[in-house]
Every structure is written in C-alpha cells, then in structure tokens.
Specification:
mainly alpha, name from scop, 4-stranded mixed β-sheet, 12 helices, elongated
Length: 355
C-alpha cells in the first residue's frame, strides 16, 4: 500500500509545500559539504600560518618551562597560571578557530540559505520510541548510508595509501634528520596527503549533495489529489469561486442595465447585438458605451430602451464594431467619431435637440 501511494506522487511540489517544508527545517542539505569545507579551510590556514603558530607555541612552551622553577605553586597561583595559559593558547589558535567556524557556517548556508525553524526544537516523543528507532536504523536510507560510507572510505583510503606509498622513501629518511627539518618534511608530506584526499572528498561531497537534492525533491512530490486539495485551501473551492463570479456578473449586469435609461441612443444589429451610447457635449470629449450585449442581453437592453423611450437605430456594421472594439464604460475611438456623430445628429433632430 505504501509503495502504491508513493508511486502516485508524480506531481512536483508546489511553492506552498516547499515553503512549509522549509519552515519545518526540511531542506536539501549534505552533511559532507560543511565537513569538507572545514577540513580544507583548516588545512589551508595551518599551511599558511603553521610556521607562525608553531613558533608562538614553542616560545610559549619555553617561557613556561623557564618560569616553572621560579613559581611558587599554590591554588591561587595555579588558577591564575591556568587562565593565562589558556588565554595565550586561544590567542595563538584564534585565527584557525575563526576561519573554521566561518567555513562551517558558509557550508550550511551555501546549500539552502539561512533556515531558522523552531519545529526541530519541539519535543517529539516518537523519536525516543524503541519501535521508531528500530525502523530508522533499518530504513532504506540507513541501509543505503552504510555502503555509501564504505565506498567513501575505500576511495579516500585508496588515495591516501597511494600518496603515502609515493612518499614512503622520504618518510623512512625522517628519523635521521634534525627536528626542524623533520617538522618541515612532515608538514610537506601531510599537506600533499591532505590536499589529495581533500580534493577527492570535495568531489564526493558534491555528488552527495546532488543525491540529497534528488532525494529531497522525490520526498516532496505530491499526488494529484494533494495538489487539488492545496489549490482549494489556498485559492478556494472552484465551485464557490464559480458561484462568486456568477454573482459578480449578475451585479455588473444590473449596474449596466441601470445605465440604459440614461443613454442617448441604442445601436442594434438589429436583434443579435445592442450597444447603448451616452454623450454630454459639455462634459465629455466623446460618447461612451454604457451598455452592450449579445443575444438575450441585447434583447433586455432593447426592451429597457423602449420602456424609457431611448431611440433605437439599426446599423449592423457600427453595432458590430462598437461591440467588438469598445470596452464597457470606455469612450469610442476616433475612427468611429463620424459614424456615431451622424447617428446622434439624427437622434437629436428627432428630439429637436442640437448637436
């Protein structure tokens, strides 16, 4: 049943589903990327500042050994000495700590931006359930993680072994070298080893992120019913929306029909179309369409016009042009001025009015 329902999730996640998942702290994220960034940045900082850090720690150690014989150790002095020693060590390694912390933050934010969710802090008693824990341990994801981890160990271990094999003749000769030269050699070999394994880990982390992204998108997929249900919740039930639109059309039609008695003339097709025009020469630059309709609506416009003694003029081409090109409540275009002016002049003559 679970496999059947999963197979039905063929629709891409909607923006709302993605936003809800993000609020819960669910984002596509690889734990490998921050780890690799911390490792590579830490190695780089140590490579650039290693000599300086080594010199400062050496000086601190020498100074401490010199002062040991002259210090009178008691609880008060021991506490002061410990505090000063810890502060001095933190000051020396602070560049490494700062840069590594920045790399960790960047490794997380670069994948999915800043995500702050209180959902992960809420107590979930199912997480401490023995049955739930057993299911997590033997879930598909957990069973997949095991061979994935073994594969990464084999790849990284293989690269490390090849690097050490290449440097082995130099490693054997380290025992006969001076401490400073030995340290430099060890640093060089370590840098070569860590650089190669780090590059491999970066490649594996990129592949892991792509896999996590694919898994995330797959988990977010929705069934067609879920998409329809979400649309109902966000945009409203289609039946209710259709009813609202119907009511809105009825109200607009009533307002339009209320304008028909004010019209100066109704131009007809004669039965299929009807367009009512209103014009006040002192207030308006051009006549405007106050009502228009086809079929039943046209019949109602004509009926109301006759009831209120609005002149009816049959002009098929003009009625069609007005109906198709002029929106309700808009003035007629200049291309129709002459044709409409002739009709209004005719109507005004009938009413004994002047244009």
């Amino acid at each position: 049943m679970a496999e059947e329902s999963f197979a039905e999730r063929t629709e891409q996640a909607t923006p709302k589903k993605r936003e809800d998942a993000r609020k819960k702290g669910r984002v596509a994220r690889s734990r490998e990327i921050p780890s690799v960034m911390i490792l590579m940045v830490g190695i780089s900082v140590l490579f650039l500042l290693g000599a300086s850090i080594y010199h400062q720690l050496s000086t601190l150690t020498v100074q401490l050994l010199k002062d040991v014989g002259t210090l009178s150790l008691n609880p008060a002095n021991l506490q002061t000495l410990s505090t000063e020693l810890i502060q001095a060590i933190l000051l020396v390694i602070s560049p490494v700590l700062i840069v590594v912390s920045a790399a960790s933050i960047l490794g997380h934010t670069a994948q999915s931006g800043t995500v702050f969710s209180m959902e992960v802090l809420k107590p979930d008693w199912s997480k401490i359930s023995f049955l739930a824990g057993f299911r997590r341990v033997f879930s598909k994801q957990s069973l997949f993680e095991l061979p994935k981890s073994l594969f990464k160990i084999l790849i990284i271990g293989g690269v490390a072994w090849l690097t050490i094999k290449k440097e082995w003749p130099h490693i054997i000769l380290l025992t006969g070298q001076e401490p400073n030269r030995m340290f430099q050699s060890i640093l060089s070999i370590s840098w070569s080893l860590l650089l190669r394994t780090g590059l491999v880990m970066m490649l594996l982390a990129g592949l892991d992120y792509l896999f996590q992204r694919w898994t995330y998108e797959k988990d977010l997929r929705m069934t067609k019913e879920e998409v329809k249900e979400e649309m109902k919740n966000t945009e409203g039930d289609p039946l209710i929306k259709s009813r609202i639109r119907s009511i809105q059309r009825q109200l607009a039609r009533r307002r339009m029909m209320a304008e028909v008695p004010k019209a100066d003339v109704i131009i007809t097709n004669p039965t299929h179309l009807a367009v009512a025009l209103y014009y006040q020469s002192k207030e308006m630059e051009a006549p405007k369409v106050v009502a228009k309709g086809a079929g039943y609506i046209a019949e109602k416009i004509v009926e109301i016009g006759r009831k209120h003694q609005v002149p009816l003029v049959e002009n098929k081409p003009l009625a069609q042009l007005l109906y198709k090109t002029v929106e309700l409540g808009r003035a007629i275009p200049s291309t129709l001025y002459q044709a409409v002016a002739d009709i209004l002049a005719y109507v005004y003559r009938i009413k004994n009015k002047r244009l």
